[in-house]
C-alpha cells in the first residue's frame, strides 16, 4: 500500500502500519469520522493517550448496546415467504396450486409476509460482533462479543452477512430509533477490523489506488472531531456545505455547465463573528515547482481562494473576513504557513498521521487559531 508521501515515492506496508500510517491512527480517524463518536460525545471518549484501546472501547460499547436491545427485545421486520399450507395465508399462488393439484389434498400455495428478527440490521450487528471479537486485545471483551453473537444466533439471527445494498436501504422508524446507536457501533467495529497488519479476507483499498476512500475518511474525521470537540464552545460545524455563485446576469445555458461549489468543512462561531472554510486533501501539500524544489499546488490554492472570494460582498457579514484552511495529512513532515490575501487569512498546514494520537488531536485544535488575522 502507498501512504501519503511525496509524488512518485512508493512506501510499502510495515508491521503495524498501513503504508507508513500506524494502524492505531487509522482507527483514531475512523472513530472521529463515525456517527458513534458524535452520539457518545467527547466526554465519554478519551483514547488519544492510547489509541490501541480503540477496538476494545468500540467492542465494549457495541456489546453493551446489544445487551440493552436483547433486554428490550430485538427489533423485527417482515420478509417475503412462499409455502404450501393447509389454510390461506396472505395471497394464494393460483398457478402453483393448480399445477400441483394442491386443493385435492387440502393444501394451498401461499405468498405472505412473516415477522422475523432475522433482518439485515440484526445480521449486520451479528457480523460486527464476530469480527471485532478477533481484533480486541482483552480476552474478556472478546468472549463477551462471541457470547452475544451466539445468543443472536440462538434467537434466530442467521450468520449471513447482509450486502451493502441491504444495509444502505435500511431505515429507522419511530419504534426502532434505539437501534441507531447499536448500528453505529457495529459499523465502526467493522471498519476498524479492516486496517490490521494481519492477512485476512477483507481488502482495504490504498490511498494510492483509491484516493477517494482515504480522502473521505480524512474529511469525515476532521468534521467529526471538530463537531464533538468545538461545538460546546459555541462553534457550528457544517460538513459538505454548498456555496452559491453571486450571479448578477447569466445566459440560458450556463446552469448546465457552471460547476457547483461544495466545501469540505465550515466552522462558524457567531459570537466571535469567525468563519473558517476548510478544504481537505489526501495528497502532499507541496509539489515540485518550475523554478523551485517545493511549491504549493496551484489548483488547491485557486480552489480555496474561490471559496472565500466568491462569497464576499453578500448579505452574510461573516464572509467578509472569512479564513481559509488547506489541511493536508503528512508523514513525518510539518507545514504551517499563513498568508493574508485581500483581507482573507489563508493557512496551509499539515497533520502528521505518523505522530502520536495525542499530537494529532493537539494539531487539529491548533488549526482553529490563526497566526495572522
UniProtKB/TrEMBL annotation:
Signal peptide, first to last residue: none
Per the record, the domain of life is Bacteria
List, in alphabetical order, the GO biological process terms annotated in this UniProt record. Answer: DNA restriction-modification system
- Write down what this protein is called: 5-methylcytosine-specific restriction system specificity protein McrC
Amino acid at each position: 500500500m502507498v501512504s501519503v508521501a511525496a509524488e512518485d515515492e512508493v512506501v510499502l506496508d510495515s508491521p503495524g502500519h498501513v503504508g507508513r500510517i500506524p494502524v492505531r491512527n487509522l482507527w483514531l480517524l475512523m472513530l472521529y469520522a463515525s456517527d458513534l463518536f458524535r452520539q457518545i460525545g467527547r466526554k465519554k471518549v478519551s483514547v488519544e493517550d492510547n489509541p490501541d484501546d480503540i477496538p476494545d472501547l468500540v467492542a465494549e460499547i457495541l456489546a453493551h448496546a446489544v445487551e440493552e436491545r436483547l433486554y428490550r427485545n430485538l427489533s423485527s421486520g417482515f420478509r417475503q415467504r412462499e409455502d404450501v399450507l393447509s389454510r390461506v395465508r396472505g395471497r394464494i399462488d393460483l398457478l402453483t396450486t393448480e399445477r400441483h393439484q394442491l386443493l385435492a389434498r387440502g393444501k394451498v400455495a401461499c405468498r405472505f409476509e412473516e415477522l422475523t428478527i432475522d433482518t439485515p440490521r440484526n445480521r449486520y450487528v451479528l457480523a460486527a460482533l464476530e469480527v471485532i471479537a478477533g481484533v480486541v486485545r482483552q480476552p474478556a471483551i472478546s468472549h463477551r462479543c462471541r457470547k452475544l453473537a451466539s445468543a443472536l444466533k440462538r434467537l434466530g439471527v442467521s450468520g449471513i452477512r447482509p450486502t451493502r445494498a441491504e444495509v444502505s436501504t435500511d431505515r429507522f422508524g419511530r419504534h426502532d430509533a434505539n437501534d441507531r446507536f447499536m448500528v453505529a457501533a457495529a459499523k465502526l467495529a467493522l471498519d476498524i477490523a479492516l486496517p490490521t497488519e494481519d492477512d485476512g479476507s477483507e481488502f482495504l483499498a490504498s490511498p494510492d489506488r483509491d484516493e477517494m476512500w482515504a480522502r473521505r475518511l480524512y474529511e469525515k474525521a476532521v468534521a467529526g472531531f471538530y463537531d464533538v470537540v468545538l461545538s460546546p464552545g459555541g462553534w457550528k460545524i457544517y460538513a459538505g456545505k454548498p456555496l452559491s455563485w453571486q450571479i448578477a446576469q447569466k445566459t440560458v445555458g450556463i446552469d448546465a455547465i457552471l460547476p457547483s461549489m461544495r466545501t469540505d468543512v465550515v466552522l462558524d462561531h457567531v459570537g466571535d463573528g469567525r468563519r473558517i472554510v476548510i478544504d481537505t486533501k489526501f495528497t502532499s501539500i507541496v509539489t515540485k515547482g518550475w523554478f523551485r524544489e517545493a511549491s504549493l499546488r496551484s489548483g488547491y490554492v485557486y480552489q480555496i481562494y474561490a471559496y472565500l472570494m466568491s462569497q464576499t460582498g453578500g448579505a452574510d457579514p461573516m464572509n467578509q473576513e472569512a479564513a481559509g484552511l488547506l489541511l493536508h495529512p503528512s508523514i513525518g513532515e510539518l507545514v504551517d504557513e499563513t498568508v493574508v490575501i485581500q483581507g482573507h487569512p489563508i493557512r496551509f498546514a499539515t497533520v502528521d498521521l505518523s505522530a502520536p494520537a495525542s499530537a494529532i488531536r493537539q494539531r487539529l485544535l491548533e488549526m482553529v487559531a490563526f497566526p495572522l488575522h
